[in-house]
Amino acid sequence: MPMTIAYWCLLIAALMPYLWVAVAKANGKRYDNRAPRAWQARQDDPRSNAAYAAHLNAFEAFAPFAAGVLAAQMAGVDTNWIVILSIVFVICRVLHGVFYIAGKAPLRSLVWAIGFLCVVALLTLAALAAI
After folding, report:
1. Total domains present in the chain
2. Kindly report the CA angle at 79 between 76 and 85, in degrees rounded to 5?
3. Would you tell me how many other CB atoms lie within 10 Å of the CB of residue 80?
4. This prediction's pTM
5. Is 44 exposed, middle or buried (0-12, 13-18, 19+ CB in 10 A)?
6. pLDDT tens figures, 48-72
7. What is the CATH number of the domain that holds 116?
8. Number of neighbours of residue 63 by Cβ within 10 angstroms
9. Which residues span the domain enclosing 80?
10. How far apart are CA 34 and CA 87, in angstroms?
11. Residue 89 and which of 16, 45, 68, 72 are 20 to 30 A apart at CA?
């Protein structure tokens, strides 16, 4: 598989936080761009709050994922593994946000864990390949 798929996954993962914050803003009351954090803190709509939490979590998950993809590539890990783990990660991150907003905590935690394991696998494969 071509490495470009993993790069597309990086782009999708980088843009994902903005998708979730758009959902948060769309479900909140009268968005105030002058004070977005204070505005979010005043929201009582569960969907807006869940989407905002997914937004923050997507930012948290991106850096380790990006590091894993790039480290694995630099270490010479088989491209097929990088691509498969990248695709699974992105699918899990999309589902994470969907399940967060839908209030499906067990499913959200499950896909979070699978996505996290993808990152751990990328970093572990990179470390092993560098030996």
Report:
1. 1
2. 110
3. 10
4. 0.94
5. exposed
6. 999 999 999 999 999 999 999 999 9
7. 1.20.120.550
8. 11
9. 4-129
10. 37
11. 45
